[in-house]
Design brief:
Layout (H helix, E strand, L loop, with lengths): L37 H10 L19 E2 L2 E2 L2 H23 L5 H8 L1 E6 L2 E2 L3 E3 L5 E2 L1 H13 L2 E6 L4 H7 L5 E5 L9 E3 L4 E2 L3 E5 L5 E2 L2 E7 L8 H8 L3 E5 L2 H9 L5 E4 L1 H10 L3 E4 L7 E7 L3 H16 L2 H9 L2
Parallel strand pairs: 3-7, 3-8, 13-14, 13-15
Antiparallel strand pairs: 1-2, 4-5, 5-6, 8-17, 9-17, 10-17, 11-15, 11-16, 12-13
Length: 327
Amino acid sequence: MGHLAHPPAPGVDGDASRERVPRGDNGVQLACDRAADRGRLRACFARAGRHAVVDPAASVARPGAGRRGGAALPAWRRRPVLLALAGALGSSIQWHSNIEDPSLRRVLDAGRIRVALDPSYEPFSSVDAAGNLGGLDVDLSRLLAARLGVSADLVTLDAGGLYEAVVARACNLACGVPPVREFTENLRYSRPYYNAGAVALMHAGLSAQSNGRPVFAIEAGSAADAQISTVRRRLGDVTVARFPDLDTMLAGLRAGELAGIVLDLATARRLARDVESVVLVAEPLTWEPLVFAAHKDDSRLLKEVNATLDALESDGSLRDLGRKWVG
């Protein structure tokens, strides 16, 4: 099962979705040529999601600051001043960066972690006939809570409300979301834990061909269509044709005009149950990662999420969840 593979190198085949997304557990990096302007320093921290605390009374070295009345101070007198200044400024920045991020403590003190899920996204999160919530994301959220020693408070929302719940702090995390780059002003994302890329649904025992090559259909404008060059490469020696919608694709598959169709995993699983003579090939053809989303200020909590995902991958738990819910 290839769903747990790490992302390919960014920029391959021009697929914008393959670009890496900023993670929230990185340290602050200052990229200033000079510390000549406290405002620039503060802005530099603000862009990284922190606020620099700089003593207004502290002076900062500027070009020519070591001169008195236009005459340069001797090097032996200049050096202690600059070293003391650097030490004072460094201590101020270090003191601020050591302030504890309360996001993890907030969860531990509450004794629960609130995780937003989309219950319509089978097999990652869905509600059965008895009203029980289940799926890969459900089990994963509970494993995360167990590692933290708290209970899992799972909140079901529509897909559009998952990000908003985290930004508004109604939930600590959202699980099973794609890392949308436009939202990084308010959110940070975990490392990917699953590749929910498009899969192939094939007609059992039939290989419709065009010029001797099997014909597969892909919906125009879909996420898979955006990575059509990757789909062609992964399928091999086949013809990939664009169709206007899923219904047309499915009609062609049933009529034997297509060897297979390429579509999202959740829809493919549903059709594999409901449509006769079709076979689901669950190996992903595209890279569409699922992640946890956290508030932009909750770096400490996100760091623990990433540590948990690393541990679950190392001990095989992520692989087992994939086999249980996807196959």
